Amino acid sequence: MHIAVNTRFLLPGGQLEGIGRFTFETLKQLVAAHPEHTFHLLFDRAFDARYLTGPNVVPHVLLPSARHPFLWVAWFEGAVALWLRRHRPAVFLSPDGYTTLATRVPRVTVFHDLAFEHFPEHMSGLEHRYYQFFAPRFARASAQLVAVSEATRQDLVRTYGVAPGKTRVAGNAADAHFQPQPPAVQTATRERYAAGKPYFLFVGALHPRKNLTNLLRAFDAFKQRTGAATKLLIVGRTAWKAGPMFDVYQQLQFRHDVHLTGRVTEEELVQLYAAAHATVYVPLLEGFGIPIIEAQACASPVLTSDCSSMPEVAGGAALLADPHDAGAITNALVRLHQEPALRASLIEKGLQNVQRYSWQHSAEVLWEAVLAAVKE
């Protein structure tokens, strides 16, 4: 069987973010588990050889590079559709929520979230119009849909009216190198990033949905209330519409205790999780929320939002707060500061919770979806 896979999020160089990581890890499992089948990887630019994980992988570069709504249309409805028409694979697997309408090849599409439906103000008007037109059509045209959480699966059914029977759940996972670190490593990490002081840690791209404005306000109130030496580290790249976050940052009374590190290496990220007093991740909406389980795998207590997928992913092993209420976030930070028994309990439960997720299991779910799509 020949299987075409949209791999445009497997970017050359640098680190893979959420969708790229999901694509790479699940595809690596599929390639290894099914050597009798050929996987055709469709890139939109030059690619790294590290993505060719088996002899049954064949790469193809289709232009133009799809990084803008007009180019998304040109790539999916033009280049990809033409390739599918010429080569007629058994199925087209798309792990990033996009697919093509211009094909009769059965499609399996992975949806990570429907944030564009619930927070259209967080993107440009042109991007929103693209999603508004194409996303529901992608969902209905696909033979099988895979969501990264039950919350996202329910959102697909509720928002687009897709049949529950053609949807499955394949979550993300924490890679094996996310694990607790020795006390000496934790001490050195705190010295390097927080002048030896305890710190709360946020990990993620800096854009409105991540709710950093409320997190910053909550941290400032925490400092005022407790007088603690604790700092806040914000780890991640600056994404779109981050201006309001920087405006709030400039107004903070305890701005000098907030450190924006930018992106860090995978090794540094593991160390930062492991040495954190707690990981604080309170977005307005998440399709999954990988930092939750990465932090838990590194024995970091977690505070996360009480909405969308986050309670599901946290598995009863995190402190929850309303992300719209900065006061509620402040109260949770105070508890993490004042209650060592709570932190210890969250660490123990978190280490157990991450065992629920594995890339192998998620790849098996994808394979079930592929087989079901081929049979239709």
UniProtKB/TrEMBL annotation:
CDD domains listed in its UniProt record: GT4_MtfB-like
Sequence intervals crossing the membrane: none
InterPro entries given in the database record: Glyco_trans_1, Glyco_trans_4-like_N
Domain of life (superkingdom): Bacteria
Keywords of the record: Transferase
Coiled-coil ranges per UniProt: none
Domain Glycosyltransferase subfamily 4-like N-terminal: 18-176
Annotated Glycosyl transferase family domain residues: 195-350
PANTHER family with a match to the protein in the record: GLYCOSYLTRANSFERASE WBBK-RELATED
The protein's name: Glycosyltransferase family 1 protein
